[in-house]
Amino acid sequence: MAxxxxxxxxxxxxxxxxxxxxTLDPVAAQVLPDQQxxxxxxxxxxxxxxxPSGGEHRRLFNEVGAGLQLRLDDPAEGSRCVRVSPGGGxxxxxxxxxxxxxxxxxxxxxxxxxxxxxxxxxxxxxxPITGSPFxxxxPFxxxxPFxxxxPFxxxxPFxxxxxxxxxxxGMLGFGATQPVNLVLPxxxxxxxxxxxxxxxxxxxxxxxxHDWFTEGCSxxxxx
Length: 223
Description:
Layout lengths: L12 H7 L1 E4 L15 E9 L9 H10 L2 E4 L7 E6 L9 H11 L1 H7 L2 E4 L103
Antiparallel strand pairs: 1-2, 2-4, 2-5, 3-4
Helix pairs in contact: 2-3, 3-4
């Protein structure tokens, strides 16, 4: 196996259990001289052959299995799957990697001839896909009001993004100027309003330029 620094993230235990799979740890796995391993996930009790065998593999499998207290079940006619089971009447742990290494050590040429290898598992993702970084996809726990002003429980997705007083300056309602984008049509300005026009007061945070505030807008400080 080629040397590589790539590491395969370990899937959740429930996923391994569902497929009867193991994770190959390059540090803890059995290794042959001059062999460098890469981590992978494989079905524990199954080996695959590149081509169906006519039975010439049987003696080799029996010899290897006896040494490991395992039995390699003969595949069905035309099958490319070899199952690893406990053998010899005693308890044993089926492990396709141990069998593969034993076959490789005993008869490397036969291993290549059969094309014997692990039954690797492939995953689109090794962790559950959620509405990250939100707790729920909407993404609020309730529509109104929110549990926190940000309004999420955590911010992309760390729990202590606004923990200190200085950091709170960037949080809504804690001092910093926050951009607001109001997507509405321009109000229709009437010539006369009874009894008087509404007054919009922007306290403390200031008011930037806006097309709606071209007439009748005054800026003054209040104390």
